[in-house]
């Protein structure tokens, strides 16, 4: 288990993803608890990239309920289909929003959030069990490389948490 992250803060985001992927695997090694793994992954992303908010919302009935996160206080519950998180859950697909002000029905948990990326976390038998939500204080802060790398990390989380 890694206790500190090793990466160059001056390197490009893509280089940080590549340097951190083996460390993500190490964080999950031997740990099958979803909450523990999600908490460590949120902390890693917040520390490595300085995103405004990084965290997980967990499916409970017909709502997403706030789970492990790093950043300012957040919305506690989100209905299925509402906002970016609820939309990603309802569609069971990643949603990238370059400008949250242009997303119909955006839920403004923080006025500082300008762009958002939400990736569903899936259980092999039960479908979407959570979503990874990342907010940036910069417009158009996420791209296809972010989606690719973070989707890989979510797959690692899924595998670790479901055996």
Keyphrases for this structure?
163 residues; single chain; Beta-Lactamase; alpha+beta
Structure classification? alpha+beta
Q: State the CATH topology.
A: Beta-Lactamase
Query: How much of the polypeptide forms β-strand, as a percent range?
Result: 25-35%
Q: Order of helices and strands, N to C? A: HHEEEHEEEH
Q: What is the CATH C level class, in words?
A: Alpha Beta
Any idea what the CATH superfamily is called? GAF domain
Specify Rg, calculated over alpha carbons: 15 Å
Number of domains: 1
* Percentage of residues assigned to helices: 25-40%
Apparent shape: globular
Low-pLDDT residue spans: none
Q: What topology emerges from the helices and strands here?
A:
Elements: H1 13-28, H2 34-49, E1 53-60, E2 63-70, E3 77-79, H3 83-91, E4 95-97, E5 115-123, E6 127-136, H4 144-162
Antiparallel strand pairs: 1-2, 1-6, 2-3, 4-5, 5-6
Please outline what is shown here:
With 163 residues, this protein is α+β, with helices and mostly antiparallel strands.
Please give a structural write-up.
- With 163 residues, this protein is an alpha+beta fold.
- Helices cover 37% and strands 25% of the residues.
- It has helices at residues 13-28, 34-49, 83-91, 144-162; strands at residues 53-60, 63-70, 77-79, 95-97, 115-123, 127-136.
- The two termini are 17 Å apart.
